[in-house]
Specification:
This is DNA-binding transcriptional regulator, LysR family. The chain is about 45% helix and about 20% strand. The model has no long low-confidence stretch (mean pLDDT about 85). The chain is an alpha/beta fold.
């Protein structure tokens, strides 16, 4: 039977990934560089290959290293959450959460009461943007955690999948469109996956379109639809009573299911970030 993975060794590995250097990791962990290197050699022996490519400035993950990083993130977070619960140690810290404006209010209603009840020492800062913006902010170190929406993926490179949503074409009850009419669209800004999906499908069908409203605020797009002035793409669960779903028979093709994913920068999540991620995965549903 293979030897079990050592939590302490995994923490060292994740710290190196997060800081980008063996030396920086050794300083943070209060260990000698040789001890850190020894732990990584041990992990490489267990996993069967090199985990890092090194140069004088920084380290980068090998394909095996990326796999180990993704596969062990949940293990570390679960370990820390269980240990904190058993020892009664309070979790404190600030978490910068990125979320699409469509989901921000519902997410807070779902998780904030429990977060404040179980972890009053966690301070939550919420930033809103589309998934493209959130990915960029993650890469710039401006977010600790982001709720992303996108087409299904077979890997975990874009975070941990925890749910799905069904986008649909919607219009107001009074909007009637002929097959050759330009489609009036209510759209989010550049970088929104629904915007790109809808425009691409219309172009493929040879249908003309024009923007009536472009806004980051979902309420503005919903108002344009409810007034019968525009067509939009929204989650089926977000449809309001005045809206009707447009069908393929009307020239609007069925849209693919999208996934909800929780993503964070490379490396180990902080205890506060891990606690919030656990609550979102457990309590937030579309």
């Amino acid at each position: 039977m293979p030897a079990p993975l050592d939590i302490d060794v995994l923490r060292t590995f994740h710290t190196i990934v997060r800081l980008g250097q063996f030396r920086a990791a050794s300083l943070q962990l209060n260990r000698s560089p040789s001890a850190v290197s020894s732990q990584i050699r041990r992990l490489e022996e267990q996993t069967g290959g090199r985990l890092f490519e090194r140069d004088n400035q920084a380290v980068t993950l090998t394909p095996l290293g990326r796999r180990v990083l993704l596969e062990t993130a949940d293990l570390l977070q679960t370990h820390d959450r269980i240990l904190a619960g058993l020892t009664g140690q309070p979790v404190v810290g600030e978490v910068r959460l990125g979320v699409a404006e469509d989901y921000a209010a519902r997410l807070l209603k779902a998780v904030l009461p429990r977060l404040q009840g179980e972890h009053p020492g966690i301070v939550l800062e919420v930033l809103t943007g589309n998934s493209s913006q959130l990915r960029r902010w993650l890469g710039q170190g401006l977010l600790d955690l982001a709720l992303l929406v996108g087409p299904p993926r077979t890997d975990r490179a874009d975070g941990q999948r925890f749910g799905h949503t069904q986008p649909v074409w919607v219009a107001g009850p009074g909007l009637q469109l002929s097959a050759d009419a330009s489609v009036p669209l209510a759209l989010h800004g550049e970088g929104c996956s629904y915007r790109e999906l809808g425009i691409d499908l219309l172009i493929r069908q040879g249908r003309r379109w024009h923007a009536v409203v472009t806004s980051a605020a979902s309420s503005a797009l919903e108002a344009a639809v409810e007034l019968g002035q525009a067509v939009a793409i929204t989650d089926r669960a977000r449809m309001t009573p005045p809206m009707r779903e447009l069908t393929p028979e009307e020239g609007f093709p069925a849209l693919p299911v999208h996934e909800l994913r929780l993503a964070s920068p490379p490396g180990e999540r902080s205890p506060a970030c891990a606690s919030l991620a656990g609550l979102i995965a457990e309590d937030f549903r579309i």
